[in-house]
Amino acid sequence: MFTSKDFLDLGSRAAVDQALSRLTEAGTIQRLGRGLYVSSRVSPSLGVQLAPDMDEVAGALARKTRSRIIPTGAVAANQLGLSTQVPAQLVYLTDGRSRRVRVSNTVISVKHAAPKDLPYGRPRSAMVFQALRHIGKRAVDDEIVHRLRRRLSAVEKRRLLEDARYATSWIAEIVRRIAADDEGTAKADHRG
Predict the structure, then answer these.
(1) Would 59 be classed as within a structural domain?
(2) Interval 136-156: pLDDT, tens
(3) What does R_g of the chain's alpha carbons equal in angstroms?
(4) Is 133 domain-assigned?
């Protein structure tokens, strides 16, 4: 997933646009929207073109508009495996302007949110914070903590713990529980 701005270090805007236009006509890439492209991928077993990853689309939009874009709680919970419910709409929050982007048969809604409603920290941490907020303080149980422990790498858990300072106190407490195993292991390794 990329934007035309990603290539401006290689040539003028006109040259980049012309090259991208030629690659689109040749079928090498797909144009998803103004200045937004994806490499064409074909399923080896089915021989059909694969749809792009919607998180990659959101990431490219964030780069293009130089804004933060994070999934809403329902989308984040589904993507992290905390909910089997697939949201009817893919909705992301941004500190930029609202927009709708159609990718094949899927529409991504990007909605402007007040800065206080956008969690800070790294994108993966913000996603976890959104998912936990969506699930709610009373509904987060040991099973959800365990799923997140399994889902996140040691590096992601360490970063999540560092970013917990940006979260509300109840989410920060759950983050400490998620990172507890790795934190204990890291302390033991440090002592040994």
Answers:
(1) no
(2) 999 999 999 999 999 999 999
(3) 19
(4) yes
